[in-house]
Amino acid sequence: MHTLKQFLMALALATLLLPAPPALAQGEGENTVWIEFEAGSSFAPGELVVVLVAADTSDPALGFGFQLRYDPRYLEIIERPDSDGESGPGLVQGGLFSGSQRVMNRVGPDGDGQLVDLVYTYLGADNPGTQGRGTIASVAFRVVQAGNTAIALENPRLIGWENNAAVDLPLTMTNVVLNVIGDASAPVATPLSAPGMQQLTEVVAPSQPEEPIRWGIVIPILIVAVVCGVLAVVLLSRYRKDSRQRSLD
């Protein structure tokens, strides 16, 4: 029986690497995932920004997965060694899933930004899963230049075990975007929607507002230009007519 459960849990890891399905499995309690700063909210270039991915789970969870999107023009990832001795962008040691096994802990380019991708799970046959409130993982960044940017949580998942199968626990997400304020004089970054982000936001750099077209000035100039063009055509036509008349006389 233990061998069968280990095999099924290993097989379930493949589901952690797929996007969360639109319909989640039924659960008995409420489960919430959010992100927050470990300390502070305004950071200068060179300073450390630690983001905590936290959860409050009523249902036993045997694994988790999430992604963090950020702009590498403003933030650089700091990889740290975890409890398994390997380095990665996410640190799980000391949190709700401390002692779980790494499936994925990496960072890479995705569109205009960078994406931190973490998946961890318990594979033990007798593991009852974790419950309660605490940190899932922490991710550390360093501010590389002044300006306002954002860090966004995408596709968070808590994995349960039900009827000898891995299931997605029903999940509520709060505080899914954090604004990193690096320069009080810079405009605040405007989040844009992206496919599959489920009311989340994509990290974008601040941009200067476009200069509006001043129609009150443009329209009179166009009218004057048209009138001048018509007058020029009329005068040229009259001049040619007078020239022909003089040549006949």
Task: Please identify the structural class as seen in this structure.
Answer: alpha+beta
Helix proportion:
10-25%
Total helical elements: 2
| Backbone CA Rg | 30 Å
Summarize it.
The chain is an alpha+beta fold and 249 residues long. It has helices at residues 2-16, 215-248, and strands at residues 31-37, 48-61, 63-70, 75-78, 80-81, 87-88, 90-91, 101-110, 113-121, 130-143, 148-161, 166-168, 172-174, 177-181.
Structural features, described:
- The structure is a single chain.
- This protein has 249 residues and is of the alpha+beta class.
- It has two domains: 180 residues, Immunoglobulin-like (Sandwich), CATH 2.60.40.680; 37 residues.
- Strands 1, 2, 4, 7, 10 and 13 form a six-stranded mixed sheet that branches. Strands 3, 8, 9, 11, 12 and 14 form a six-stranded antiparallel sheet that branches.
- A hairpin with a 5-residue loop joins β5 and β6.
- The chain is elongated and about 120 Å long.
- The termini are far apart.
- The N terminus is likely disordered.
Question: Key features?
Answer:
single chain; Immunoglobulin-like; 6-stranded mixed β-sheet; 39% strand; elongated
Write the layout of secondary structure elements.
Layout: H1 2-16, E1 31-37, E2 48-61, E3 63-70, E4 75-78, E5 80-81, E6 87-88, E7 90-91, E8 101-110, E9 113-121, E10 130-143, E11 148-161, E12 166-168, E13 172-174, E14 177-181, H2 215-248
Parallel strand pairs: 1-13
Antiparallel strand pairs: 1-2, 2-10, 3-9, 3-11, 4-10, 5-6, 7-10, 8-9, 11-12, 11-14
